[in-house]
What does this fold into?
Amino acid sequence: MTAHMKLLDAMGTMPERFAAELADADAFDPAVLEGDAAARRGRLYRFAALGGLAACIAVLLAAGLYLRGIPERESGVTPPKPPAITEITCGTAQTTQTTPITQSETETAAALPSVQTETTAAAEHMTETTAKTTVTEPDTQPNPPAHTAEPYRTQTDAAPETVSTHTTTASVTAQTDTAPATTDAGTFDPSYPYLRIVFTEGYDPDPADYAEFGSLTYFAGHWELEITGGSREEITQKVQAVIAALEERPEIMSAKPELWYTYH
Amino acid sequence: MNDSEIIARYFQRNEAALDETAKQYGAPCRRLALRLLDNPQDAEECFNDALLRLWETIPPAKPESLFAYLSTIVRNLACDRLRAQNRKKRGSNAVQLALDELAECLPAGESTEAALDSRELGRAIEAFLDAQPRERRIIFMQRYWAMLSVREIAAMYKLNESTVKSTLKRMRDRLAEYLKQEGFL
It folds into this structure.
C-alpha cells in the first residue's frame, strides 16, 4: 500500500463530526483565519518596523560618525606645520639649513620669502646696531687687539649666518658700485661711510687723532673709521680730507684705504 | 426537509428518503466522488452505492448529520473503488496533489511506511484535528478529506487563497511535529 493510499484511508477514518462541520458553511467564521493572517502580518510588520528602525539608527550613527570625522579629515588635508616651518618664519639660520630637506618644494617656496624677509630685517638691524655701536664706542680704547671689535663680534654671533653673508654681499656690491674712494667718493650715498684702513704692523693709531673725522675702531685685523656728522657734503669733504691725510703718510698703511658704506 | 425528517423516513423505510437525500446532498457528494475518482460515471456509481449503503444502515444507525454520514460513505466507497482499480492509478491529479502535500507529514521509506497502520495514523490525525480551532480543522478537512482545491476552499469561505495556503502549510507543519511527538516519525 502506498503512502498516498494510507493517507487516503487514514483521512477516511475521520469522525463524522468533522465531516458534519463541512456541511455548515455559514458557521464558518473567516475572520478567525484572517485574524490569524492579520496577526502574522502584524508580527511581520512589527518585525519589519523594528528592523527599519534599527537600520535608521545605524544609518544615523554612521552619519554622525562620518560628520564627526570631517573636521579631522579636513585638518588632515593641511597637515600641521612641523617645528622646522615655525622656525623658518622666525628667520633663523638653523631653519634655513633644514628647509630643503624636510619641506616639499611648494612649502619651501612659500616659506622662503619669509626667511628672506626676516634675514633682510636682521641684516638691517645689524647694520643699525653696528652704527650705534661705532658711535658710542669710547675713543679711548687702550689696546686694539684687546678691543677686537667686540660689538661686531657680538653682532655676528647673535645674527644668523645668512644674515652675515647677506650683509657682506651687500657691502661688496656697494663697493663694486662705488668708485674708488680716493677718486670718486662723492658718487655714493655717504650717509654712513667708513674707511677700512689697514695700518702697518706695529703702528698703533690713536683714535683721538681721527676724532674730527669720526670714530676709529678695530675690527678683524683692520681699522674702520666711520665718518660721522654733518650733511652729505660735509661728510664727503671729511672723507676726502681723511683720505688725503692718510695718503700723506703712506708709511703707516700697508694698503690703500678702502671706502665702505652701509645702507639704511 | 431537515435531516431529522429525512432520517425518520429511513426508519419508516420510505423510499422518498432516498430522493430527498439525493436532492439535499447529491451535488456535494457527487463532487467528492468525482474529485477522488476523476471519472463522472465512477462518481455516479459511487454515489448510488452510497445511497444503497445509507438505506441498509439506517436504521439502526441514526446519524446526527446526514450529510456527514453520507459523505463519509461516499468517500470510503470511492477509496475502495480506487483501491480496487489498477494500482497505477492513484486518482485524479487534484487528489494526487493533495496527498502529495499531506505526505510531507509522513516518514519516507518503505519500512517505515509499512509499519505505519492507516488506522493508527487516522486516530493520530483525528486527535490532532480535535485540538485545532474549528475553522482550521474545516480548511484541513476540505483540502485533505473532501479533496477541494485551494481556490474552491477560498471561494467557499470567502478567504484569500494565500490565507488558505498559509493555513494549510502551518497545519501540516504542526501535524508533522505532532506525529513526531507521538512516535510516528
